[in-house]
DNA sequence: CATGAATGAGGTTTCATTCAT
DNA sequence: CATGAATGAAACCTCATTCAT
């Protein structure tokens, strides 16, 4: 891999090695031209560490690298070069796993959604009382959001056409809407339009979290949670 | 005559854009290349309209063109070339008025902010009763938002680091917070934390609007407004 | 919607070169657009010669092209476009090997320095007598300089802040200073300040060469050399 | 340092100009478009200070501004915009006095040459003894050079095609050559080739000054001068 | 599975110069 | 004498993607 380019040597020191003289090569090639990598005695070449990994692991490694970089510098500002450097693979490898840079963002979204939803539903599932379920939902959502802010942002913000935020959170809101409907059906609370209420409550929660993150409210996390819970109960006529 | 310091980047001070004596020149209008001005029948070319305009008008024209294009294709997808073509001026003229493409986006934000705030405050100012003022605020905000969605999106979405949305809306939320505080002070309603309540109410309003735009709720605009108003009143213990 | 901080330049993080999803792309060789490679008869298109070369060769080819063009038209007047055209590669390839146009000039300097120094020291090394060594140094330097004038000029003239010429020649002068000191130590000649004497002798040599090149003196190369040698000996009290 | 060809257009004269008929004026022009100048209260307009100056003064002011900027940032890196800003005039005014940016550099060269030569000849003229005249010449040249380094550099370095340095200093060297010849004619010293000796001595002086400026020699100005004088005398067989 | 040299369209920005007022 | 809005060619540099090995 005769890299004489001035670009910084990619993070991982364990180098990848290009192996051979290609057969149909131009007569010009005078030497082995192995670049600066041939640090070992060329007479006793290292038996080429295996560079391969199970596909799933490699894919995850790439996804991890991408997520970190997207978070740190934004999607558009992150080049595929940077991702592969961070993952310690060659450029082509990236395209072995993702059709495009955008495709890797979508993969990240899937990963996020799956985990986020899972966490909420698991929390809710532990309760039977409707009021408890509501509290659990709100709590899990707020915590999850606060914990994953950076990822959430990058994953849902950086896409054009900047789909309405609501749309992105469709599944999560649906979950809340069902909860609200369920509670209403059993008389736990009253609501005119479960779906729209869910939308607004979720948005309120989101906004409170954003404010907390932005440092615009002096409240700590638990106080924030308390405020959101109170807000919800009031909307649903609980308190 | 070697240079002892081997790798130091020598100060590279040449201008990057023109390397040769320009000689015969740019300003020379030799052909029909009059840019986008030639809107009239090319068979009867105008005898050289003066191309200058008062600076303010030119600036506005550029801003208008930029806003339209940003709305239609997004900020990043809009090239300065496109903007100047739409405005009917040369590329350099753009940079006469804005330091960079990004700077033009900022100018757009300023314009938007000014108008949006103005509209809300004007609507509120027409009422004295606190409840009416609240309703007016909500109504004006929702309508304003629904009317200006496209601009709003482009103007506030395309910036990194995607500052918390809440932050961007700081001024507007502040306005709502003051309103809520004012009402609370006179006993028009009760609230524990005017600021956080404002944040959440504004977010809820925003979310409802987004849902309406995204077509996720079957309600029309007035029904949406009614729902939001009801939501607000409930939160403030009014109804 | 409004953004409270009015004028702050928002971090502008989008990549500057590609704004839309690239989709089907550049690398795709769809047409005959094979760049400057198609040197063979276009009627019988080569079945896609491999375009890759060992990095070192490509780098050298680029450097050669750059040197020639810099010499012919000057650094600033040479565009990267011209360089890559001359080297028969795409624009991006240039930036694969050099971080910037300036960086390629630096690479050229390195190349020149290496060769120039080598030549002088090799010539000197063939002698043991101090006087012979001095003559050899002067001769090699003058010849080398006269032979490489064009390269020398471009390589050391085009940089700002036009570091004192002396500085650029630091290594070479150092070599001369050591020689003078060595001779003085063994009583071959006398000198008050070896370093400053080296500086002045080297400058005198340089000046004589410049005059010869500029055609300001009617002497041929050997006469010029003789004059410089005589000058030096006189300064060192040899003749 | 003088450039022998005084007024010659540096490079082929570039054609220019265009002329068009103004024709009818658009109705769009609404104001006088006075730009940012109208800083005073428009209701009580300042009675327009006269902005005009005698041509010679304005020209000098522009030249001063240009010299300072060229010195600080280099010729190419200095824009006409910067010059006019520094001189406090409008862009067009610059072109009223200089045909191009390059022309202003040439004007600067003339100014420099005139002053430098004058200073040396005046110093020499005060002596009659040949040895004193030589000393005076060297002293004045070294001092003048050390005092005017920055200007000298910018004025003689930034032009393409980087004429041999020797050529630029033609007049000054000629002056030295005549001095050496004169002394030789009267038997004050001996020399084989006055012209070449002058070249080399001047170069040595130049080199010593450069080294001093670059901080490569620990000597102060008077020590440097002493060394150069000693060097010269040795070359001419004086000491 | 993996590599990495090569591509090249596309973008932003600069600034010398003109000319109508 | 002076202005300054407008021009527009031309430069540098980026990076998503391909494909021969």
Automatic annotation (TrEMBL), chains A, B, C, D:
Record domain HTH tetR-type: where: 56-116
Domain of life: Bacteria
Keyword presence, Lyase: no
GO molecular function: DNA-binding transcription factor activity; transcription cis-regulatory region binding
Pfam family, one: TetR_N
Keyword terms, alphabetized: Coiled coil, DNA-binding, Transcription, Transcription regulation
DNA-binding region: 79-98
Presence of keyword DNA damage: no
Region Disordered, residue ranges: 1-47
Protein name: Transcriptional regulator, TetR family
Originating organism: Solidesulfovibrio fructosivorans JJ]
């Amino acid at each position: 891999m005769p890299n004489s380019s001035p670009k910084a040597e990619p993070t991982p020191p364990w180098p990848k090695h290009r192996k051979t003289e290609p057969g149909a090569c131009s007569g010009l090639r005078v030497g082995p031209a192995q670049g600066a990598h041939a640090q070992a005695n060329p007479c006793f070449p290292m038996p080429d560490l295996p560079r391969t990994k199970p596909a799933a692991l490699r894919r995850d490694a790439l996804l991890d690298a991408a997520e970190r970089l997207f978070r740190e510098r934004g999607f558009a500002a992150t080049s595929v070069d940077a991702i592969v450097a961070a993952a310690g693979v060659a450029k082509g490898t990236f395209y072995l796993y993702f059709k495009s840079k955008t495709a890797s963002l979508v993969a990240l979204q899937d990963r996020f959604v799956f985990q986020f939803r899972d966490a909420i539903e698991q929390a809710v599932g532990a309760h039977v009382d409707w009021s408890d379920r509501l509290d659990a939902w709100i709590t899990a959502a707020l915590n999850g959001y606060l914990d994953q802010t950076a990822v959430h942002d990058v994953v849902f913000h950086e896409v054009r056409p900047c789909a309405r935020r609501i749309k992105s959170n469709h599944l999560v809101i649906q979950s809340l809407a069902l909860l609200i409907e369920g509670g209403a059906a059993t008389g736990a609370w009253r609501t005119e339009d479960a779906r729209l209420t869910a939308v607004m409550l979720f948005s309120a929660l989101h906004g409170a979290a954003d404010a907390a993150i932005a440092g615009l409210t002096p409240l700590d996390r638990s106080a924030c949670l308390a405020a959101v819970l109170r807000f919800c109960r009031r909307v649903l006529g609980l308190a």
